[in-house]
Amino acid sequence: MSDVLRPTPGQTVGPFFGYALPYERGNEIVEPGTPGAVRVHGTVSDGAGAPIPDALVEIWGAAPDGSVVQRSGSLLRDGLFTGWGRAATDREGGYWFRTLEPGPVEPGTAPFYAVVVFSRGLTDRLFTRAYVPSEARETDAFLGRLGDRRRTLEAVREPDGSLRFDIRLQGEDETVFLDYTPAPGDAARA
């Protein structure tokens, strides 16, 4: 046996989401009729613009007052708002959540949902943000550094009041994805 260790091929993260990770009502972060509830929805697509029918999307959002929710029970919510949910995409690549709109977590920053995407062909999950429409989006320092690409992180208010956030994994109009380094403070870099 050789003492030389050789790298093994990387593995992708799917496509097993349809039966291994979703759980009942995982996309329903708040109950129907909850005051202030909003529907967050969109489509996950590949580099050619084709929908991805077996992706998994997770979101986390602060409470409407901007406080960071730090309680367990995301899988068994029991009526508690945890800010976290998980949704599998449908055959057309669509996903949706029922949640509350987050408030800004720090003064001078725009409110956003943290978004994680798992999909076939990816060697790891992807991190991004979905910024909620607000005046603070115009002065947010992070968004300001992105130039024209910032629009890929901005959720759009639909006529029915819902928020649309499409995720493009590659190609033209690719969503800006973030790299989280394991440094103190968990700083994000685009």
TrEMBL record:
This protein's UniProt keywords = Dioxygenase, Oxidoreductase
Which GO molecular-function terms appear in the entry?
ferric iron binding; protocatechuate 3,4-dioxygenase activity
Which domain of life does the protein's organism represent?
A: Bacteria
EC code(s) of this entry: 1.13.11.3
User: Which residue ranges does the record assign to the Intradiol ring-cleavage dioxygenases domain?
Assistant: 31-106
Among its keywords, does the record have Oxidoreductase? Answer: yes
Work out whether the entry's keyword set contains Transit peptide. no
Record NCBIfam families: protocat_alph
UniProt lists the family membership as follows: Belongs to the intradiol ring-cleavage dioxygenase family.
Name of the featured protein:
Protocatechuate 3,4-dioxygenase subunit alpha
Look up and give the organism this protein is from: Antribacter soli
